[in-house]
Design brief:
Blueprint: H1 29-42, E1 52-56, E2 59-68, E3 80-87, E4 92-99, E5 110-114, H2 123-129, E6 133-135, E7 142-144, E8 154-158, E9 168-169, H3 177-194, E10 201-207, H4 210-222, E11 230-237, H5 243-247, H6 250-254, H7 266-288, H8 292-295, H9 301-304, H10 339-344, H11 348-354, H12 365-373, H13 382-390, E12 395-400, H14 408-417, H15 423-428, E13 432-436, E14 439-447, E15 450-455, H16 462-465, H17 467-478
Parallel strand pairs: 5-8, 5-10, 10-11, 11-12, 12-15
Antiparallel strand pairs: 1-2, 2-3, 3-4, 4-8, 4-9, 6-7, 13-14, 14-15
Helix pairs in contact: 3-4, 4-13
């Protein structure tokens, strides 16, 4: 009998996706095999230029390679770099792609973007969400994105853990977000050493399972007072952070409580209500004593029942946007237009230009299984958010209003419940209209550097669904407007 899991497992796009029984996540299963065949014919891809390497006495067993990306690749007119963080002690190689700011890279901050998963490639963010270009499905040519997040920041897209995207290794020892955060910190130290032309001001952003990654990364950075860069803030979009609070909001979201009509009937709604109480007991056991033995059971059949409507083929619910349908036969995570990205990433000229050393793996089953084996998806990542806020670090939580899997109701619930020094005042704040170009684009509440923003007419991938409001959000935020209102008060 197949092992039953609940949680969020992502598709090729890097979304969290519910895994249940023998059902598979939506992903391009043939992609890795096709790319592997290309690399087998070519041998390991030879870089278009010999890379240079950066080492550090702080991390004597690690080195960072860097090479310039040829301009004729067509993603943007700005300078771009790719390379690998190599951990000699483990044989692990972490791929990154850096896109300089279109404005003033010598003054603009750096954003590190982490995709979801666990185990999905941040190249999805680069080529499908907030990067300088998207890939046309028909022609496999880049289409300029005027709302790219590199308009006013240098953005670094990192594939982590090992086996995600173009990252690879002889072994993979990362089975928790906390372990992965240590490698991310080492990467950042070597990155800022290698690229002294950029200001050492950093914002860490991501979506989906990055709701676990980013709190761990932020806390890890803050635990290093000797760090050579300044962590300015963290930004999490539609993240999986606190399952105890977020699981409670599946039933309301399915049943009409999230601002959109119900997609299931009263009987299903009653069943979801009945399931929640028993599921919560499992989560509380995990939270009370965070061990693999206590947290893994949360991924069993009981809590999986909270997402059963996803598997009703009559409903064809899109887990990432409750207002859209998803054909069960689709092997692309419900988004046809993402096909161009995957095919572009297997073109030999692209692989050569970026110095890829391994076949691209859009989402890694291996990484997913490792993280589930420790119960990492169910561990209380919100505790690291508390740690960051107590250290005065600004935190932005944003959510597309139409997402189901990490819906805005759940985001509001866990942020309201979060214990920190500003808890009571934040909880009492009311959502107020958030405007872009004089029009209501969402609703926001904020106190003492902790901000929650709901963005209208967007699903799980806010930068993809609402690119202009998403860019306005990030530009205001990295400018120091942690209230997102255009003025400080």
């Amino acid at each position: 009998m197949a092992v039953t899991h609940f949680t969020p497992l992502n598709s090729i796009q890097g979304f969290i996706y519910p895994r249940f029984g023998s059902l598979k996540t939506a992903r391009f299963a043939s992609f890795a095999m096709k790319t592997a065949a290309i690399l087998s014919c070519l041998g390991l891809v030879v870089a278009s230029a010999i890379p240079d390497f950066t080492t550090s006495s702080q991390f004597p067993t690690k080195r960072l390679s860097a090479r310039s990306v040829p301009g004729d690749l067509g993603l943007d007119d700005v300078q771009q770099y790719t390379g690998y963080l190599t951990a000699n002690e483990t044989g692990e190689h972490f791929f990154y792609w850096t896109v300089e700011s279109r404005n003033d890279p010598s003054k603009d901050p750096v954003i590190l973007w982490l995709q979801g998963g666990p185990g999905c490639s941040s190249m999805t963010g680069l080529l499908y969400e907030n990067g300088p270009s998207f890939i046309d499905n028909a022609t496999l040519t880049p289409i300029h994105n005027p709302h790219s997040w590199n308009n006013n920041a240098t953005v670094v897209y990192l594939d982590q853990p090992v086996d995600s995207g173009f990252s690879w290794g002889q072994t993979n020892n990362t089975d928790t977000s906390a372990k992965g955060a240590k490698e991310v910190y080492a990467f950042l130290e070597l990155f800022f050493q290698r690229f002294p032309q950029y200001p050492k001001t950093l914002h860490v952003a991501g979506e989906s399972y990055a709701g676990h990654y980013i709190p761990s990364v932020g806390a890890e950075i803050l635990r290093h007072p000797e760090r050579s860069f300044d962590l300015k803030s963290v930004v999490i979009g539609n993240g999986l952070v606190d399952v105890l609070q977020q699981y409670k909001e599946y039933q309301p979201m399915f049943c009409g409580g999230g601002g959109v009509p119900a997609v299931v009937g009263p009987e299903v709604c009653d069943h979801l209500d009945d399931t929640l109480a028993a599921c919560n007991k499992l989560v509380e056991t995990c939270y009370n004593n965070v061990t693999s033995a206590n947290c893994v059971p949360v991924g069993g059949e009981l809590c999986s029942n909270l997402t059963l409507p996803f598997y009703n083929e009559t409903l064809n619910i899109n887990p990432y946007d409750i207002t859209k349908k998803c054909e069960p036969a689709l092997d692309n995570g419900c988004y046809n237009e993402s096909d161009g990205m995957t095919r572009w990433l297997e073109l030999p000229r692209v692989l050569t230009a970026i110095g890829a050393e391994h076949a691209w793996n859009g989402c890694s089953d291996n990484v997913s299984d490792l993280f589930y084996s420790t119960g990492d998806p169910f561990r209380p990542a919100q505790r690291d958010v508390t740690f960051m806020l107590q250290h005065g670090l600004p935190v932005l939580i944003y959510a597309g209003a139409h997402d189901i899997i990490c819906n805005w109701l759940g985001q509001r619930a866990w942020t309201d419940a979060l214990p920190w020094h500003g808890h009571f005042k934040f909880r009492l704040k009311k959502l107020r209209p958030w405007h872009v170009d004089g029009k209501v684009a969402g609703a926001v509440k904020s106190h003492a550097g902790f901000t929650f923003l709901r963005i209208e007419d967007a699903g799980h991938m806010v930068p993809h669904d609402q690119p202009k409001p998403a860019l306005e959000m990030i530009n205001r935020w990295i400018s120091g407007d942690y209230w997102l209102v255009g003025e400080k008060h």
